[in-house]
Amino acid sequence: MTGRDPKSIIDAGAMAVGQWLAVLVTLGLNAVDGFDVLSISFASPGIARDWGIDKATLGWVLSMELFGMALGSLLLGGVADKVGRRPTILGCLAAMAIGMFGAGQAQGVAGLLFWRLLTGLGIGGTLAAINAAAAEVSNRRWRNFAMALMVIGYPLGGIVGGMFVQRALASATWHEVFLYGAWATTGLLPLVWLLVPESVAFLDRRRPPRALERINRILVRFGHPRVSVLSEASPGAERRSIADLFKPGLLTTTVLITFVYFAHITSFYFIIKWVPKIVVDMGFEPRAAAGVLTWANVGGAVGGAIFGLIATRLGLKALTLCVLLATSVMIVWFGHGSADLASLKTTLAITGLFTNSAIAGLYLLFAQVFPTHVRATGTGFAIGVGRGGAVLAPVAAGYLFHAGFALQTVALAMASGSLMAAAALLALRVRDAD
User: Fold this and answer.
1) What is the pTM of this model?
2) Which residue, among 164, 144, 109, 131, has the nearest Cα to 30 in the 3D structure?
3) How far is CA 167 from the centre of its chain?
4) What angle do CA 276, 297, 286 make, to 5 degrees?
5) 315 burial class (0-12, 13-18, 19+ CB within 10 angstroms)?
């Protein structure tokens, strides 16, 4: 027995196999999120062809689950701080699976919009919860790398999904794209149940019935010593809420980090959502378009991993600032177009490397700047409001294209998001907030 508090044992102890397995499950969860979000991009050429919808309407179809993600992050991030990371993840996974199955059966725009909204709600809640879960299951030494692993799940889902869809679209319809994602989502439910325990930091703070017993069971499972007491409760801990995000100590941080995420995500989702349709409009086959998007995700996975390793040694803020600026440059470069697939794949791979590295940097910053009691709430708020940028990006680009603007002009406009994010990040004061 030891008098050390539970959170300190996790922070200072070695990373056990069980902790790495939990991190890998969050990677898998983000991968399914990545495939679920990208499924509509893979399916969009077929939807436009089968239902005869114009680009402005297609922009709304592409954006609906992003609107759901915004609502899910805002509403369910707070739930994860109240009832726990684990039950929130399980509930959101179930919502995602139902939404994907429903989208696979949709027969019209209205029905598809509803099912994509439900899918988005589940994804949004999952993102807020797994960000907190990955941070809190990791020790201090490996936390940045562990969270970067979680983040690269998103492009990995796009890579595997893209390769699979390229083959599947040779004989299957766009409906099957959603059904594949639904089965993959369903398959993660038992893995979460078995391998992702509740956060020790959450149990120590919220102190539900048998909190000490549950904490010690998790610590023993991870090979750490038991504790005899919980950490000393801070005054007013039970009265803390989302309002804490807007109190003087956190207000500036909340506003700035949310704007940085909002602005960058407009650029990120312009690439993620519109690349397949843009490539098809250049004269290439839908299967080739899926392949180009896959290379964007290859770059994203590589970039996220490299970023996570570098972030263990260099300043997180400066590193994130650099990749935000590089993102703007690459999106403008993409806007110049290309006559061959090889050049497009190279350009999108480099673009994906920088766009996803910036996402990794922002997720790491969420875990640093928001304290434990509002970590999922703050992350959910930033992601939720930021997803407004995700909703805005496909719709704005769709209307710009519909108005007759060329790709080069649209790309220049959409690249400004990451540039504005870099400017706002300069003003953010970054410090650890436990």
Assistant:
1) 0.74
2) 131
3) 26
4) 25
5) exposed
How do residues 202-233 score in pLDDT, each as one tens digit?
888 888 888 888 989 999 998 888 887 777 66
Largest CA distance in the chain: 70
> Rounded to the nearest 5°, which phi and psi values hold at 2?
-145, 150
Residue 308's nearest CA partner among 298, 317, 297, 316 is: 316
Q: From CA 192, how far away is CA 169, in angstroms rounded?
A: 30
Nearest one of 75, 385, 365, 347 to 255, comparing CA atoms? 385
CB 427 within 8 A of CB 364: no
The answer to whether 227 touches 212, Cβ cutoff 8 Å, is yes
Q: Give the whole-angstrom CA distance, residue 6 versus residue 4.
A: 7
Q: What is the DSSP letter of 239?
A: G
Which whole-number Å values give the CA distances from 51 to 109, 259, 276, 317, in the listed order? 8, 36, 17, 45
**Residues of the chain below pLDDT 50:** 1-3, 236-237, 433
Q: In this structure, how many other beta carbons lie within 10 angstroms of the beta carbon of residue 3?
A: 7
Interior angle at CA 26, CA 384 and CA 246, nearest 5:
30
Q: Name 313's Cβ contacts closer than 8 Å, sequence gap at least 6.
A: none
Cα–Cα distance, 183 to 295 (Å, whole number): 24
Domain ranges across the chain: 6-426
Phi-psi domain of 411 (left: phi exceeds 0; alpha: psi -120 through 50; beta: other): alpha
Q: Residue 183: CB partners within 8 Å, gap ≥ 6? A: none
Cα-based distances in Å from 115 to 98, 100, 268, 318? 8, 7, 23, 40
Q: Which residues pair with 2 in a beta bridge?
A: 227
pLDDT in tens, 285-297: 777 776 787 788 8
**Helix 109-137 / helix 55-82 crossing angle, nearest 10 deg:** 40
- Backbone Cα Rg of the chain: 21
pLDDT of residue 241: 58
CA-to-CA distance for 128 and 38, rounded, in angstroms? 19
Q: Domain 6-426 carries which CATH code?
A: 1.20.1250.20
What pLDDT does residue 3 have? 45
Structure tokens at 50: 């089968």
Cα(282)–Cα(293) distance, integer angstroms: 14
Question: The tokens 């263990």 sit on which residue?
Answer: 312
